[in-house]
Amino acid sequence: VLDSQYGMYVWPCAVVLAQYLWAHRRSLPGKRVLEIGAGVSLPGVVAARCGAQVILSDSEELPQCLQSCRSSCLMNRLPHVPVLGLTWGRVSPELLSLAPIDIILGSDVFFDPKDFEDILTTIYFLLEKNPHAQFWTTYQVRSADWSIEALLHKWNLKSSHVPLQSFGADKEHLASSSMPGRHTIEMMIISLAQSEG
């Protein structure tokens, strides 16, 4: 997919997150997984092909991205994977009625600082509803000035860094293809912080 619009392109972060899922494929069968901001849905598709029960989502305001999710499922023989319109920061009937989940996926969702709090508001809502769930996310370092640290604290969330070399994603080539351009990709797992007392 060569179109470089937000949800219409396989960004390097998606390849790295897919690599993490592949490295943990034996733990995925039966896990309930939600991918947010899915776009082309590479991580979600990999999780589904590894046996997870996957739901793909993207903004309800971006029908072309939702169609991209559906197309990726069809091309990968996953016609029964549900695709939902979920807009970050918005409490919708679709968000409220989501079944329990174990893992939330998000590749390169921390792209525009104006969206950071909406993303973490949604993640907080999902983790409060599913306290043992985790948010597995990859992001590209685009500016040293952009940070979610204060927002994590505000929303009672904690993050742990996942070194790329721990799952073989620190190479120039992943999945038999070269990573386009030079990118600094990072991965972290976000979960609820322990409440005091």
UniProtKB/TrEMBL annotation:
Pfam families: Methyltransf_16 (PF10294)
Annotated Gene3D superfamilies: Vaccinia Virus protein VP39 (3.40.50.150)
Localization (cell): Cytoplasm; Nucleus
GO cellular component, one term: cytoplasm
Keyword Magnesium: no
Biological-process GO terms, alphabetical: chromatin organization; methylation; regulation of gene expression
PANTHER family on file: HEPATOCELLULAR CARCINOMA-ASSOCIATED ANTIGEN, HISTONE-ARGININE METHYLTRANSFERASE METTL23
Subunit structure and binding partners: Interacts with HSPA5, HSP90B1, TUBULIN, UGGT1 and UGGT2. Interacts with TET3. Interacts with STPG4.
Functional note: Histone methyltransferase that dimethylates histone H3 at 'Arg-17', forming asymmetric dimethylarginine (H3R17me2a), leading to activate transcription via chromatin remodeling. Maternal factor involved in epigenetic chromatin reprogramming of the paternal genome in the zygote: mediates H3R17me2a, promoting histone H3.3 incorporation in the male pronucleus, leading to TET3 recruitment and subsequent DNA demethylation.
Family per similarity comment: Belongs to the methyltransferase superfamily. METTL23 family.
Protein name from the UniProt record: Histone-arginine methyltransferase METTL23
Recorded name of the encoding gene: Mettl23
